[in-house]
Amino acid sequence: MGSPLNVTDENFQTVVVNSDLPVLVDFWATWCGPCRMIAPSIEELAREYDGRVKVCKVDVDHAQQTAQGFGIRSIPTLLIFKDGKQADQLIGAVPKSAIEDKLKSVLA
Amino acid sequence: MSSEPTEKSLKRMQIYTEKYWEKTGTSPHPTREVADTVINGLAQNIDELGRPLCPCNFYPDKKAELERSREWVCACDEMKIFKYCHCLLFVTPEGMPITEYLPEDHEGRQVYGIIEDPTPDKGRELRRKADEKIAEWKAEKE
Questions:
Q1: What is the mean pLDDT of residues B43-71?
Q2: How far from chain centre, in Å, is Cα B115?
Q3: What is this model's ipTM?
């Protein structure tokens, strides 16, 4: 692994909800400036937490049911799942350190 | 929504954003790609929907959203009332969104802290609606 997985409506349940590892999910869209800003951090986290956290990206324009199901409004929105349940969320162009704090918390 | 917008819509949004930076005393993000991405998204939405709907939100149904309200048509209500652009199109010269007028529990305050407005004499053309908007958000949470 080591790089974010692209997740759609079809495989969200399998990849995210059924995951044995905690999962960081980045809900993003093509024309969202802040989404582009945080993308490098998401990629770095995928590498740095490889084997401990699964990192996924959901393009909301291609996963509308999932985005709607989780009440996504403002993007980027980052959701963190543990044991198949949403454990935390971050909204906006948050710094990498803030995401890491949340990941460390679910790994503790 | 990943195809390129038409030149006509792109030009329209470029002119609009230039004027709105001037009008509100805000700046483009220092990472130019951030502003360019958003302007492209707004232009794309003009092509698709006829209006520059904010590309930094998810809408289950974009057409229904526009029928519901003009809340997220750029410049959005949050920008006109609180001078806050979560899309980071209209920001301080350092690239931070202005958050000082937002209520404390707003996600913008929680993510960015208090970012003061460097040009408080400009913008916020709908500031009179601040109390009404805050009441609306409270009602949505309850």
A1: 96
A2: 16
A3: 0.90
Beta strands in A17-84 (DSSP E): 23-28, 54-59, 77-82
Q: Which of B56, B76, B85, B87 is catalytic?
A: B56
A33, A90, A94 ranked by CB distance to B87: nearest: A33
Query: Which two tokens mark A20?
Result: 């044995």
In this structure, are residues B25 and B122 in contact, taking their beta carbons and an 8 Å threshold? Answer: yes
CA dihedral sign, ordered B14, B19, B20, B24: positive
Residue of A21, A29, A32, A39 marked active site: A32
Q: Tell me: the pLDDT tens digits for A2-11?
A: 899 999 999 9
Distance between CA atoms of A32 and A64, rounded to whole angstroms?
Answer: 16
Closest CA to B110 of A88, A29, A56, A84: A88
Q: Is the whole-model pTM more than 0.90?
A: yes
- CB-CB contact of A86 with A77 (8 Å): no
Which two structure tokens, joined as six digits, stand for B139? 């009602």
Among this protein's residues, is A56 annotated catalytic? no
Amino acid identity of residue A57, one-letter, is K
